[in-house]
Specification:
One of its GO terms (molecular function) is malate synthase activity. The protein is α/β, with parallel strands linked by helices. The chain has helices at 29-35, 59-73, 92-105, 127-143, 160-172, 190-197, 210-222, 238-250, 261-269, 327-337, 344-359, 390-409, 414-421, 423-431; strands at 14-19, 45-49, 80-81, 118-121, 152-157, 183-188, 226-229, 255-258, 278-283, 286-289, 291-293, 296-299, 304-310, 313-318, 321-325, 338-341, 365-375, 378-388. 40% of the residues lie in helices and 22% in strands.
Amino acid sequence: MSSDRNYEREFVRTFFTSPTAVGGENSAKMLQSAAQLRGMQAPDTWIPDNEDATAPSMRDEGVQNLVEVVSEHGASFPGEIHPRVVWHRDDPTTRYEGFKQMLEITDPENGAVEHIDGFVIPEVGDLDDWKKADEFLTIIENEHGLEEGRLSMSVIIESGEAELAMSDLRAEKGKPSNNLERLFLLVDGQVDYTKDMRAMTPTGELPAWPELRHNTSRGASAANCIAVDGPYDDIRDVEGYRERMVENRAMGMTGIWALTPGQVVTANEAPLPPKTGSWLLELDDDEIELDDEDGRQVYDGDELSLEQVGDDSYVLRVDGEELECDGEELHEELLDLTTYVPSMDDIVDSMEEFEAAKEAGKGAIAMTQATTLVIDDVEVDIAKDRMWDEATYQAAMTPVALFQDVYEHRPDQHDALEEMYGADIVERAMAVGTDD
């Protein structure tokens, strides 16, 4: 199997679903509203949802709404459009209904297909089931005179069968007997997955399923797809949503489901490198951001205290434990308690410096990060060195590559990105790492 991706996008931050039909005078109003989102409010992938988000009795109307809205607004929508149709691994009738929905949506006479990037297939089972959906798409492409592989396929991992299938996907993609190269997104669906696993929690809330998220991220990496986390349904818990994304990014999963335009904005912005760097104190498994006051990092809390009792003698108290130390020992203790979150400017500076060093024939260089900590009015200068080599450089390239991917594919977000970082940093970020 080729190691190249089959689609231009390397990153997807947002997977935004909206019902294709709702009750009321204008059943297409949710589609019409979503189709006109722009900038940071517009998702990377928009999923007009003709499955769970739309009542079964309204799905035929939903298909017609989808066709009409995409025909009218698809050309100007800044993200990709991937309708979600009905499907089920155990129900041939449901699979056939999904086939008919896709056939109607892609009929060239309806005017929508030129703006449709692919389809999202829910409730898949083992790889034989994935191949059924793939074959339906191949039939549809031939029926409507589209190039084979023109329509991408994304699947929602909502069963143990589908989770296990990801382990075999790498070996199956690229075989002459299927077109599974069309796979684009692997999306977790924790609600139905919980039901399929017969899982229970005391409160009735969904389990976090970190193993599923890890397996989906691993499966996507091995098969050159993109992994997306499932819905975070407490739409008021913005901080919890952010924390979920931090956990996901640590396991290689950038994208997440969004249920509201507010979640879209959060999910679009959160993976990008921060505008300004920040120092954190790590105390009792908590990360506390220090206040930046004129370049000094000030701690204002009661979990940590510092007292200078002599010219080079200090008493450091951490969570009730007291440590007497000299200046050098204090420096080392505080280094262990602090960490730095680099800004976009910091990352680009470091990468440019390493590129210059590499050009000069150096394989590794030391980067120094220094600041002044202020704890109980006692000032302590700290500095930490980090060795940069090619592996460090490539790891730092990931957030920059994300930024470059966003800037290339989302011109509607250029103004917001330049306002966030400044035009100079944007220009430098787009240039770094492009010589290889």
